[in-house]
Amino acid sequence: MALLALAPGDLAMVVTRMEMAARARLAPMPLSPFSLVPWRQPEPAKYRALFARVGARWLWYSRLAMDEPALAAALGNPGTEVYAVADRHGVEVGLLELSFRELGACELSYVALVPELAGQGHGRWLLAQALLLAWRPGVSVVRLSTGTLDHPAALPAYRRAGFVAVGRYVETFPDPRLQGILPADCAPQVPLVS
User: How many structural domains is the chain composed of?
Assistant: First the structure.
């Protein structure tokens, strides 16, 4: 066993790479008061706002750190599909992003709801919706990555859905709170160490 020191201001997480190589048996769609709204070429500012709402608690920052042209190019890529999760009043409460950039594969890039909805069963609905969209003609594998900084229920939920772990990695990165990308008070479960 070894402890590895991080550079000052850095964070580390264990990332689990997961795959589903065959479509799971169809099950009844979980009930939900939400709907998916396709965002075709979303405005970067609108996308960033929702991305921060769903991901800041888990220190998601990658899309927030991208400059405007890079984010617009990523979101406008023909292999990228973005959906907002909307409540009955049209308020966006979640995000689903799929990538079909690799032939025969779908990557569940981002699957998230606002933290206030955690533990209420809505994640099961969102993951079922993601898989319904992912498994289309020509797709033979669905992939995703999750990390130890994500919601603790994420990995077990992916396993229950039929994903299997195919690799594990350690990712280190500058703490986005110290970089000014995210507020210093987000992710209180992760100590802020400069």
Answer: 1
